[in-house]
Amino acid sequence: MPDMDIQHRHIEVFRAVMTAGSVTAAAQLLHTSQPTLSRDLARLEQLLGYALFERERGRLKATARARALFDEVERSFQGLGRVIERAQALGRDEDAELTVLSLPALSHALLPGALATLLARHPGARVDITPAEPPLLDAWMSEQRFDLGLAEQATPLPGVRIEPVLEADEVAVLPADHPLASRKRLALKDFAGQDFISLAADDPYRREIDARFDAAGVARRLRVQTHSAVAVCELVRAGLGLAIVNPLTARACAADGLVVRALTVSIPYRVSALIPLHRPAQPLVGDMLNALRPRR
């Protein structure tokens, strides 16, 4: 059996001859001399132990073996072409993909505007958003499943760095035809005796809001509660009561019978970014954080 010391150069020469149709044209294609290319082609045939071309009146005619080999070579070069395209795309936006795990309220009220900014800067990027609530959100971020997480009042998690994104005050939401809607700001005492739509009992903002009213000695009528700030706003819009929610959801839901009013007390609302420490860094994370943060 011949020594199969075939080099990439030999295959390149063979492909050029098959593609160009002659040694002269192939030499021009590879920017080399005809004698050099002929020697490389002869060496390939020697290594293979059989002829790839028949010589007829100074012209080359591919054998059946040559055509079969060329089919395989073309498949390999097409694969190489895909590798090159992939490598080039990784340096652009075409293959940039950002996976985001977010509280549902933030995917509704915060992410749309930030994504518009991000995608305007990176038109070819792709973003995958998965909504989740704690403790699932915390567990998935600790498991390094996503490039970026968005949460409220984030607690320390193993393998995760926490960065503040924004802080703003909670606001009141009212039906547009409610008597208190004529005021620009509401005090806690204004809610006395009012039907009040609450977040779920285990929500940290619900607990803080209840503590503020208890400390002020203000009693509300607590008749409806829900886990979703968006649902709170829709219940208020339907005239079932007043509420205090985060400013992002309130502003996203405002209009069509729902108004937003500031409070005379400050109940801070915070959004934090969760960044996995043991997942390969995604270049889009930095730009996404810039898009999420309020412009100064």
Topology, number of strands? 13
| Shape verdict | rod-shaped
Strand content: 15-25%
* Number of domain modules: 3
How would you sum up this structure, described in words?
Strand 1 (53-56) and strand 2 (59-62) form a beta hairpin. The chain starts with 7 loop residues before the first helix and ends with a helix. With 296 residues, it is of the alpha/beta class. It has three domains: 8-90, Winged helix-like DNA-binding domain superfamily/Winged helix DNA-binding domain (Arc Repressor Mutant, subunit A); 97-165 and 271-292, D-Maltodextrin-Binding Protein, domain 2 (3-Layer(aba) Sandwich), CATH 3.40.190; 171-266, 3-Layer(aba) Sandwich (D-Maltodextrin-Binding Protein, domain 2). The protein is built from eleven helices and 13 strands. It is 42% helix and 24% strand. Strands 4-3-5-13-6 form a five-stranded mixed beta sheet, with helices on both faces. The protein has a four-stranded mixed beta sheet with strand order 8-12-7-11. Strands 1-2 form a two-stranded antiparallel ribbon. Helix 2 (23-30) crosses helix 3.
Provide key terms for this protein.
296 residues; alpha/beta; Arc Repressor Mutant, subunit A; D-Maltodextrin-Binding Protein, domain 2; 5-stranded mixed sheet; 11 helices; 13 strands; 24% strand; rod-shaped
Question: Which SSEs are present, and which pair or pack?
Answer:
Layout: H1 8-20, H2 23-30, H3 34-48, E1 53-56, E2 59-62, H4 64-90, E3 97-102, H5 104-109, H6 111-121, E4 126-131, H7 136-142, E5 148-152, E6 160-169, E7 171-175, E8 185-186, E9 195-199, H8 204-216, E10 221-226, H9 229-237, E11 243-245, H10 247-253, E12 258-263, E13 268-276, H11 284-292
Parallel strand pairs: 3-4, 3-5, 8-12, 9-10
Antiparallel strand pairs: 1-2, 5-13, 6-13, 7-11, 7-12
